[in-house]
Amino acid sequence: MSEKILQDINNISKHLIHKTNNNFIISMFNLIKSGKMLRSKLILSIATPNEETLKLCSIIELIQSASLLHDDVIDESTLRRNAPSINALFDNKASIMLGDVLYSSAFYELTSLPEAVAKSVSKSVISLSSGEILDVELAKSLNSNLESYLKMIELKSASLIAASSESAALLEGLDHKAHYEYGLNLGIAFQIIDDILDITQDEKTLGKPSMNDFTQGKTTLPYIYFYHESEANAKLLESLFAKKLDSLQKEMLKKSMEKSLLKAKNLALEYANKATNLARKLNNEKLDSIVKAMIERDF
Amino acid sequence: MSEKILQDINNISKHLIHKTNNNFIISMFNLIKSGKMLRSKLILSIATPNEETLKLCSIIELIQSASLLHDDVIDESTLRRNAPSINALFDNKASIMLGDVLYSSAFYELTSLPEAVAKSVSKSVISLSSGEILDVELAKSLNSNLESYLKMIELKSASLIAASSESAALLEGLDHKAHYEYGLNLGIAFQIIDDILDITQDEKTLGKPSMNDFTQGKTTLPYIYFYHESEANAKLLESLFAKKLDSLQKEMLKKSMEKSLLKAKNLALEYANKATNLARKLNNEKLDSIVKAMIERDF
Fold first, then answer.
1. What is the pLDDT of residue A1?
2. Which domain holds residue B211?
3. Pick from A98, A105, A119: which is nearest to B108 by CB?
4. Is the alpha carbon torsion for B253, B254, B258, B261 positive or negative?
5. Between B167 and B207, whose confidence is greater?
6. Are A122 and B107 in contact, with CB atoms under 8 Å apart?
7. Which residue, of A82, B44, B248, B292, has the fewest CB within 10 Å?
8. Residues B202 and B170 occupy one common structural domain
9. What is the pLDDT of residue A208?
10. Count of domains in chain A?
11. pLDDT grade, residue B183 (50/70/90)?
């Protein structure tokens, strides 16, 4: 994957936002730090990097950025990718409004792509926003239900990754259903790994505070496993639920969760294996490598 | 216009939101009070009320509701259509997230309509959200610039009305450009009248606090005219800018603005006349009546 293509995608996005002709919008957009562009890399591993494919990448990245702009307001996060978030730099209003501009720009561009692609992507945004609601709902009390957690991450995280993979296959005339399944399994594994890293990595590596999920009342997979390990664990989690932990408490909790973290990693590997098998069935080595890199990453 | 058709449109919207399968989303959505459905009435005055037309109406109403959900968070409004707003009933998070679900559901359905319709509607949402940003920007200091105000209401209010009119014409195979122009002029007149009513009507009639615009730092057309009438007026407005006014101050300000209110009404009539002329050119009496009713309304 050449860095130049990723830069081209960012330039397409910049061009789209420039069309609003509003300097405040443009300058705020320029302050958003580019992420790892995982979804673009996924698309480029499936479809020929022509104009249509690059447009799809730009649309997906705009949607991803829009959802993060709204997430940061909802989760009251002030740090994103090691930089102050837009809601921290400006205010919640700005972040909501810029998110709406990004969403609508993405949807407008989507109307130029084939109908099946437009349907796949827009449907995934319904899932994504419903998933965000479920995420907030689950955090209202201590959630120890595995199925609810898996449903939520499928909606909130995996659906857009699945739609990216499916849309790339649609553009390339490949088996879109198998590519959707690949993306869904990759996405679920991706989110479980993210939730593990939130516990095991430090603030500098994460680009945001560590153990942020639990502080926000979000009991991700390792916590759910830990909760069910013993009654004492359940009581410990309940006593710490949605509280701000100091670094000693964090260290102790992390230590005692070793087994649950391993168990969570194993479930991520199960989903990753499903994705790998699909990648092999689809004869796409790049998709195989994406799964490997995703599992092995430490941020 | 039969009430039954408007009820059918609301039922289509309910059905779309039910597809999320999330009870929290569905119950919040059911709490949103239906408005006057001006945009649906406009569409039904142009296009045959078949399945496609009703779907378009539902999409436009969902977009309108989504934008109000986000507006109420941005403007910190707690009252909407004489009822507590979703951000007041729940919280800002809920209002942002429900807005995103409504937007994405509308965009997903839009992919089933003809491409030209999808483009017109999605483009208007870029305008609408850019207009919201401009609205907030202008309210940061006392705006006395007429052009900025007109640009802002064109983006924030008129563009979706213009897209509704244009899309209905596209479905019916009529002159879509003329219908767009009609909707744009109607929309600008509509918003000026709204801004006048914000000053002249009481809270009960408005369904929200009176003189709310000025309290929020929004100098709408009557204030801009008043500002330029004399240096004393300019100083008065500057001294009251973005402050909470008591009922006596409101009454006095309203009284002294009589001339500016009349002048604003006259500009609304100019735009309304342009719309009326287009309605006559298009030989559509219903569109003529819509302009009249819109101008004569008192809420």
1. 61
2. 114-299
3. A119
4. positive
5. B167
6. yes
7. B248
8. yes
9. 78
10. 2
11. very high
Task: Decide if B129 and A97 are in contact by the 8 Å CB cutoff.
Answer: yes
pLDDT of residue B1: 61
B247 versus A161: the higher-pLDDT residue is A161
Distance from CA of A225 to the nearest CA of B (A): 25
Same domain assignment for residues A187 and A279: yes
pLDDT at B236 over 90: yes
> Beta partners for A80?
A83
- The per-residue pLDDT for range B24-50, each reduced to its tens digit, is 999 999 999 888 899 999 999 999 999
Q: What confidence tier does B235 reach under pLDDT thresholds 50, 70, 90?
A: very high
In contact, B73 and A96? CB cutoff 8 Å = yes
Residues of chain A short of pLDDT 50, as ranges, are none
Is residue B116 pLDDT above 70, yes or no? yes
In this prediction, residue B293 carries a pLDDT of: 93
Three-state DSSP at A189 gives helix
Distance CA A105, CA A121 (A): 14
CATH number at residue B9: 1.10.600.10
Does A189 map to a domain? yes
Nearest residue on chain B to A26, judged by CA atoms? B130
CA distance B224 to B227: 5
Contact: B70, A100; criterion CB under 8 Å: yes
Q: Do B107 and A125 touch (CB under 8 A)?
A: yes
Residue B110 has pLDDT above 90, yes or no: yes
CB contact under 8 A, B70 and A20: no
For every residue of chain B, which 3-state class applies, written as one string? CCHHHHHHHHHHHHHHHHCCCCHHHHHHHHHCCCCCCHHHHHHHCCCCCCHHHHHHHHHHHHHHHHHHHHHHHHCCCCEECCEECHHHHCCHHHHHHHHHHHHHHHHHHHCCCCHHHHHHHHHHHHHHHHHHHHHHHHCCCCCCCHHHHHHHHHHHHHHHHHHHHHHHHHHHCCCHHHHHHHHHHHHHHHHHHHHHHHHHCCHHHHCCCCCHHHHCCCCCHHHHHHHHHCHHHHHHHHHHCCCCCCHHHHHHHHHHCHHHHHHHHHHHHHHHHHHHHHHHHCCCHHHHHHHHHHHHCCC
> Residue A134: inside a domain, yes or no?
no
Complex-level ipTM beyond the 0.90 threshold: yes
HSE-CB for A104 with a 13 A CA cutoff: 29
Is the pLDDT reported for residue B242 higher than 90?
Answer: no
Phi and psi, residue A91, nearest 5°: -155, 180
